[in-house]
Write a structure and sequence with these properties.
Elements lengths: L12 E6 L3 H14 L12 H6 L1 E7 L5 H9 L3 E3 L2 H6 L6 E4 L6 H10 L3 E5 L6 H14 L3 E4 L6 H11 L6 E9 L10 H17 L2 E11 L2 E11 L4 E7 L6 E8 L2 E6 L4 E6 L5 E3 L6 H14 L8 H18 L1
């Protein structure tokens, strides 16, 4: 699939951010730190100077801008537009875009961009259902364009290191695992717990442990809204897992625990630290991770547009995660 991607290897890549709410601002800040302030991580394997010199943020799209945002954008030479139609009418050529708008708007915005030849990094989930994601994937494939799903936890250094323990069987084969993601419900979230929150760890379970089937789904509701969901999984390799997402447990937690034949790994995805307990050995704590996952993800997308690199996540992963989410929704209702 990588050979068929239409890449811009010589000219400038003109980037737009579509949706300028919370996540739109986060992506803008990430790009500013990379491009303007040159704040980058030491371990990037691509030629950052070459990559970033060839990319400009030229447009931001949102129905309503704060006056302070407009002023900031003007100072940076970035044009603001109220909608995609206005952007397209401006004849400002866009090569790539980040879609950071509400999930319900993703499909229509993404389809319009793809029809205009624009490659996309789309906040998770790409769309609420697998069918809609598949439609976008077909359009992108036919035009040689990129859709990169923003499954940001794949860029968490704890998850990257945990995968090495799994793949290389450093403490033997996996026996079971638990993924937990808890917090009070954010005011800005309008989507369901399953669509907005569970998808992170469904994708992580797939990335770390391979394909699985859903055994059971247990939910807790408050005022008819699902506020907690626990999914039990069974993997082709024989082990099992538990994935918990909760808005009832208000203490913020994002964690992973993996039981191996000869030890246990416990990872804190928020603090970015990991404890390893090996059988008949002293335990050790691994700290010092400092990466910014949004910047890593954005660079992965931008590099893939220019170089024949392999990103940490692709549209097939989004399709697989959406299939599981569809199944969980079915069992939860």
């Amino acid at each position: 699939m990588w050979e068929k991607i239409r890449r811009n290897t010589t000219g400038k890549t003109r980037l737009a951010i579509i949706g300028y709410g919370y996540m739109g601002h986060v992506y803008h800040q990430a790009f500013r730190e990379l491009k303007v302030e040159r704040q980058s991580e030491h371990y990037y394997k691509i030629n950052l100077d070459d990559l970033l010199s060839g990319i400009d943020l030229v447009a931001v799209v949102d129905p309503v801008f704060k006056e302070s945002d407009r002023t900031q954008l003007e100072q940076e030479g970035v044009r603001g537009f109220k909608d995609l139609e206005t952007l397209f009418d401006s004849r400002l050529d866009i090569d790539a875009a980040v879609i950071a708008s509400p999930i319900a708007t993703h499909f229509d915005l993404a389809r319009a961009c793809l029809e205009r030849g624009i490659s996309l990094l789309i906040e998770k989930p790409v769309c609420p259902t697998r069918n809609r994601i598949a439609q976008l994937a077909r359009i992108a494939r036919s035009k040689g364009l990129v859709i990169l799903p923003a499954h940001v936890e794949r860029y968490n250094p704890v998850c990257i290191d945990a995968r090495e323990y799994v793949d290389y069987k450093i403490m033997g084969a996996v026996q079971r695992y638990t993924l937990r993601r808890c917090s009070a419900k954010p005011d800005r979230v309008r989507e369901s717990l399953i669509v907005d929150k569970l998808i992170h760890d469904v994708d992580l379970a797939h990335a770390l442990f391979g394909p699985f089937r859903v055994k059971t789904v247990d939910v807790q509701r408050k005022n008819d809204e699902i506020m907690q969901v626990q999914v039990s999984t069974a993997h082709r390799r024989g082990y099992t897992g538990t994935i918990l997402s909760s808005w009832l447990i208000e203490e913020k937690e994002r964690s992973i625990q993996i039981e191996f034949e000869r030890g246990r790994l416990m990872g804190d995805l928020l603090q970015k630290k990991m404890k390893v307990y090996r059988l008949r050995e002293f335990s050790k704590e691994i700290t010092g991770y400092r990466n910014n996952q949004i910047k890593d993800q954005l660079l992965d997308f931008l590099a893939f547009l220019k170089y024949p690199t392999r990103p940490l996540v692709n549209i097939k992963d989004a399709l697989w995660a959406a299939k599981i989410i569809d199944r969980v929704v079915e069992l939860a209702t």
